[in-house]
Write a structure and sequence with these properties.
The chain is of the alpha+beta class. Helix content is about 40%, strand content about 20%. It has seven helices and seven strands. The chain has a five-stranded mixed sheet. Strands 6-7 form a two-stranded antiparallel sheet.
Length: about 180
């Protein structure tokens, strides 16, 4: 365990990623921690990652992480939930990593567009800019839309607007409409 006190969810993430890599589980870091890779900063007490895998695989991963001394709680969504399952991983200090077991409407190419960034001796996989904006528009809350605007306006290479609109439309009409508001603002 790398973390030795509260406020070190990024260190817990490194432990979790080590287990994910060992188990050959594809992942993408999303949420506030991913914002910084794309030029926007927002504080958060936990780290979110999206996994490719079934609820059964998440349960197996939870058992593995518990054997390493972490706490793991598997939550199942109902059929209308956009997140089919989530594994909440924490340590004795209260650090937390939320592992989302999929996302309804997610573009299947999302993992191939990962941005790999070195971090404290590891190489972490972050959601690409267009995919992260699309996910934020799908989530649709005020903070999510502020995040999407921040990424959109952050310095960096131009967005692939065709890709952005395509991956956002997969999340439904509401997400697509929110994207157009983000792009207009």
């Amino acid at each position: 365990m790398r973390a030795d006190r509260a406020g070190q969810s990024a260190l817990l993430l490194l432990d979790v990623v080590e287990a994910l890599v060992r188990e050959n589980v594809e992942y993408l870091i999303i949420g506030a921690f991913a914002l910084s890779v794309h030029g926007a900063v927002r504080a958060s007490r936990d780290v979110d990652a999206l996994l490719q895998g079934s609820p059964g695989r998440l349960a197996k991963l939870g058992t593995l992480l518990e054997s390493l001394g972490f706490l793991a709680s598997l939550r199942q969504g109902d059929p209308s939930d956009p997140i089919p399952s989530m594994l909440v991983v924490s340590d004795p200090h209260g650090n937390q990593v939320d592992l989302l077991g999929g996302l309804r409407g997610l573009d299947p190419g999302v993992f191939s567009r990962a941005v790999e960034i070195p971090f404290m001796g590891a190489v972490l996989r972050f959601a690409g800019r267009e995919d992260l904006i699309a996910m934020k528009c799908f989530a649709g809350g005020p903070i999510d839309l502020a995040d999407a605007r921040s990424i959109h306006h952050a310095p960096g290479p131009p967005l692939d607007l065709d890709l952005l609109r395509t991956v956002t439309r997969r999340f439904g009409r509401d997400a697509a409409d929110r994207l157009e508001q983000v792009l207009a603002g």
